[in-house]
Amino acid sequence: TAPMEQNLPFILGLIGVWYNNFFGAQTLAVLPYSHYLAHLTPYLQQLAMESNGKSTDRWGRTVGTQTGEIVWGQPGTNGQHAYYQLIHQGTKLIPADFIGLVSPAHEVGGHQDIFMANFFAQPEALAFGRTAEQVRADGVPESQVAARTFAGNHPTTSIMVPELSPKVLGQLIATYEHKTFVQGAVWGIDSFDQWGVELGKKLAQAIIPELTVETAPTLTHDSSTSALIRRYRKGRGRA
After folding, report:
1. In the annotation, is 50 catalytic?
2. Architecture of domain 196-236
3. Helix (H, G, I), strand (E, B) or coil at 93
4. What crossing angle do the helices spanning 40-52 and 166-187 adopt, rounded to 10°?
């Protein structure tokens, strides 16, 4: 009900379309700074990729633009020691959503402040980077200056919520669900079907008896699939 300029799902949806279709960014990293949100990104991955992974529009025509975002990520403190290097200095443009909490579920010493210091620092580093002059001012050897220079200008969205309550979790999920719908509407696709998933399930049902029958079945798949089935059956001690 909020006006469009203040409507978070609408804004997030358009930001995703902007980087996906006009900058060629194919993925979105969702990086929650709470281990209690460890399963949020896999949920959003299923939401976005199953809903908007379409190449046919609502009128049965082949789409003329890239659709869907490849959503991935994990809690930020783990990701910092895994793939943040590529986001900071790699050759791919990777928009990222950072999600942080003001109050943790449990206070443990000063851990929350340290956690959130990283939540604030990473988007700042991605946005502004570090120039060669700044690196030299730190006394870095000239041979390392280029490698320790950060271009910056990497797009991020920071979402900070007061706490992780059932209400707030519901708001987060609803925000991304509505964002997904907005993108589907812009791309002109039906975000509510999943025929690609159905095809895989249908083929699997036909393959199950070919794996379990005792005598060698007559296989009519492509050569690769048939060879894999025969190898599997041999490994299982079947003809």
Report:
1. yes
2. Orthogonal Bundle (1.10)
3. coil
4. 20
| pLDDT tens per residue across span 121-144 | 999 999 999 999 999 999 999 999
Query: Do the beta carbons of residue 70 and residue 27 sit within 8 Å?
Result: yes
Residue 100 burial by Cβ neighbours in a 10 Å radius (0-12, 13-18, 19+): buried
Token digits of residue 179: 């964002």
Pairing status of strand 156-161 against strand 70-72: unpaired
Q: Which of 5, 142, 201, 214 is catalytic?
A: 201
Give the active site residue among 50, 88, 177, 221: 50
Residue ranges of alpha helices (H) inside 39-139 are: 40-52, 76-79, 84-89, 111-128, 132-137
H and E: helices and strands count for the chain: 10, 4
What interhelical angle do 195-212 and 223-235 show, nearest 10?
50
Q: Domains of the chain: which residue ranges?
A: 4-193, 196-236
Q: Give catalytic status of residue 107 as yes or no.
A: no
210 given a catalytic annotation: no
Does the 4-193 domain belong in CATH 3.20.20.70?
A: no
C-beta atoms surrounding 238 within 10 Å: 15
pLDDT one-digit tens code per residue, 47-78: 999 999 999 999 999 999 999 999 999 998 88
Helix, coil or strand: residue 100: strand
- Catalytic residue, from 5, 81, 106, 214: name it: 81
Q: Hey, do 4-193 and 196-236 end up sharing a CATH topology, with the first three levels equal?
A: no
pTM of the predicted protein model = 0.91
